[in-house]
Amino acid sequence: EPEVTQTPSHQVTQMGQEVILRCVPISNHLYFYWYRQILGQKVEFLVSFYNNEISEKSEIFDDQFSVERPDGSNFTLKIRSTKLEDSAMYFCASNRDRGSSYEQYFGPGTRLTVT
Amino acid sequence: QKEVEQDPGPLSVPEGAIVSLNCTYSNSAFQYFMWYRQYSRKGPELLMYTYSSGNKEDGRFTAQVDKSSKYISLFIRDSQPSDSATYLCAIETGANNLFFGTGTRLTVIP
Fold it and tell me: Which helix (H) or strand (E) element contains residue B13?
């Protein structure tokens, strides 16, 4: 069964450093998302991406964040200058088409620890 | 006002019990309602989604939406220890993103 994959599973970085989190969405999916979950808190929407551009973004997704689809399979989230409060699980998700955003499939997550 | 609110639990039941998990939501315009299951340190796994009102059944799981009271429920029949996880309700806002509840941690005791 196809699934969303994410690398690395755990990333430790120092405050102020740049990190890139990588995702490979399900191959025939067209919509891609990043969510984050701070320990003990809700899963929160960050950004959605379609046709090589951002569709929607939340207030959390400020200028420190960017997303990119550098090739036909990868989808990345870059945090330019990490802060302690960026420590969280980051989940990538995808769905097949515009009408099926209720059917998002999530990856296993990358745990980001900022020290 | 929060988009979706969920009883945080935790909830502990004996094996074989019927489990009821609940959420309320704020905006009557929401149309799609989802239930995800999340094991510890894993990604949310889509269990089922429901459009508008009514019930949807999948094996031991039944999702129910009451739009008049803005209430969504997930029932698990004959609960098993393998059902022990955190259950997240979510709504699709119509803007290609999901709002999640806080999650209810369920433990099924053998």
Answer: strand B11-14
Find all residues with CB under 8 Å of A89, minimum gap 6, and list them: A36, A37, A38, A39, A109, A110, A111, A112, B41
DSSP label at residue B81: G
Mean pLDDT, residues B56-79: 94
Q: Which of A42, A89, A109 sits opposite B100 (nearest CB)?
A: A42
Which are the contacts of A77, defined by CB distance < 8 A and separation ≥ 6? A20, A21, A23, A34, A46, A47, A65, A66, A67, A90, A92
From residue A15, give the alpha-carbon distance in Å to each of A30, A60, A86, A114, B42.
Answer: 33, 18, 9, 6, 25
pLDDT at B73: 95
The pLDDT tens digits for B27-65 are 888 888 999 999 988 899 999 999 877 889 999 999 999
Residues within 8 A of B (CB atoms), A 11-40 only: 31, 33, 35
| CA-to-CA separations, A96 to A30, A44, B76, in angstroms, rounded | 5, 21, 28
- Output the CA angle A62-A63-A67, nearest 5 degrees: 90
